[in-house]
Design brief:
Keywords: Hydrolase, Lipid metabolism, Metal-binding, Sphingolipid metabolism, Zinc. This protein has three domains: 439 residues, no CATH class; 75 residues, no CATH class; 122 residues, Immunoglobulin-like (Sandwich). It is built from 15 helices and 38 strands. The strands form ten sheets. Strands 1, 4, 5, 6, 8, 10, 11, 12 and 16 form a nine-stranded mixed β-sheet that branches. The protein has a seven-stranded antiparallel β-sheet with strand order 7-2-3-34-35-31-29, with no helix packed on it. Strands 30, 32, 33, 36, 37 and 38 form a six-stranded mixed β-sheet that branches. The radius of gyration is 25 Å and the shape is globular.
Amino acid sequence: AENYLLGVGRADCTGPVAEVPLMGYANPDQVGGGLLMRLYSRAFIVADLDDSRRVVFVSADIGMVSQRVRLEVLKKLKSKYGDMYRQDNVILSGTHTHSGPGGYFQYTLFWITSKGLIRPSLKAIVNGIVKSIDIAHRNMRKGRLFINRGTVENSQINRSPYSYLENPASERSRYSSNTDKEMVMLKMVDVNGQEIGLISWFAVHPVSMNNTNHLVNSDNMGYASYLFEQEKNKGMLPGEGSFVAAFASSNLGDVSPNTKGPFCANTGESCNNPQSTCPVGGATMCMAVGPGNDMFDSTRIIGQNIYMKARELYEKASQEVTGPLISAHQWVNMSDVSVELNATHTVKTCKPALGYSFAAGTIDGVGAFNFTQGSVEGDPFWDEIRDQLLGEPSNETKACHKPKPILFSTGEMTRPHPWHPDIVDVQIVALGSLAIIAVPGEFTTMSGRRLREAVKREFDSHGTPQMDVVIAGLCNVYTHYITTYEEYQAQRYEAASTIYGPHTLSAYIQLYRGLARAIATNTVQDLPPGPEPPVFNIGNFTLVPALIADRVPVNKTFGDVLQEVRQQYRAGEVAEVTFVGANPRSSAENATEHNFLTVERYARVSESWHVVDNDASWDTRFYWTKGLLGRSNVTIEWHIPPGTEPGVYRIRYFGHYKKKLSSSHTASIPFEGTSSVFEITTL
């Protein structure tokens, strides 16, 4: 008894893995220098059996969905599919990995740490998302949806527990924990019982990889996807196979996976105090630590926990999702919303601004906005906009944001373009009894609880009881954090980053209640669409270094081995080889499907080499080291997993070098390198 038409798709959205700042920790020194795991966009389409209505949910392995990404994706979908995929029925959500390329934003604030608007980065994300939707669109078939929920243990801590304690005791007493431990899982099966895919929502920051990391990867959530897909797509290489498993973000605002908690990096003592500061070295020394013996190990442990719970919920899922598909969306000017708190009291949101604690960062990644005199000198980017920085916040904005001391009055900064969005998407998609609230940022634990409860109550009171309500985080446009009014008073990082002021959450609750009411009463068509967001005409404005011609050392050629593998290894060891390399950006601009490496095993029977691993694998690491005058090296590591079949192996590297043909023309020329063969033995 199928209920819906279902389609799933997965497409690469990795983008440039070198020289582009990684998005998340706001640390301009954290630029890409290689690849640990590929980034994917995962798309899910659900349609009525008569195909009169469709909804799309996309979870992409990126820091957050930016307004620019969303607008460009929807434009492409419109030109391909007409009015089938629209603002209201397409949700784009980011997993919030902090190890993906940045530079895909149109608002100026995000240019500072991502060095401007980086076209290859934007293009890879937009094309990857569209491609994943195309694949899902082509593979629609009859099927059924099942929902399940359960508790994930040992995978989160609240990283601002002192802010959480500002919430009323009566409210806190209703919950057993200061984080949401519940995972919600949606399972998709086709009419023949074949498994198609799943979406899991769980609230935790993908920051198991810290801000010293330079390898592009999808962090703990991406590792959970990887494990689930490897299990279901048996015999396929990572990134291949038809089963799609998305581990999507939720209300993760104050939730860290670094479960050992905050310690002083210099002295080893706990710094779990209201200021997250150390006796020696202050706040910059206070860093949270994950459960593993290094960040790779912590990523694996947390990702594995999440995957194991998802697998259990998936196997046991029996509650079927049925009912109509309805989607509601509005644009709203968040800097000017009046909120009726009660019959006599009305409050307002503010023009966006960031408080001082924004610059301090969090225990997952301490502040990088250390503006020193030296670093501002002679930087063309700062020269152009420092006058903006010096602009003092207006009295109105200061008063509106109280008690927040304003560091950047971004809502009053407009050069060269506005620094922060005013126009924000609010969106709810109902898949029968499951309501997905698409939120434009990072709701804290308690903010998310209040929002879910308010939306559920709205459905209840308009004759749609028993709705499952889930929050999808980092959707559509990025507006930083959303704390409760009480948490806002403490002005830690999350509160300082609640950009529309103390009543931001109340405004969103009012808006999402309006959407829920429209869905429950079937009056979505009467919702005013709201003011359209702007699209800025941005030139090629970036501080990412220009791609120069790649060069090789004397008497060497691209792909030559500089440091050879050993002749023998055992499982658990690391095979490592270094090649004469070229800038990986020269490859990315050629082909989205480019694989930088393979691990191959020799099959004696067929006398041929078989690929057993690629660059999307958790077990391979691709490091690019930039030298002088266009030279560079590539080191490939294969962390040989336990249970690897003994035999003869080799590692191959695939690159492109940029060559100047004339003063105006360059070409990218493919090359490859191969290690010596090596043996894996059992003893």
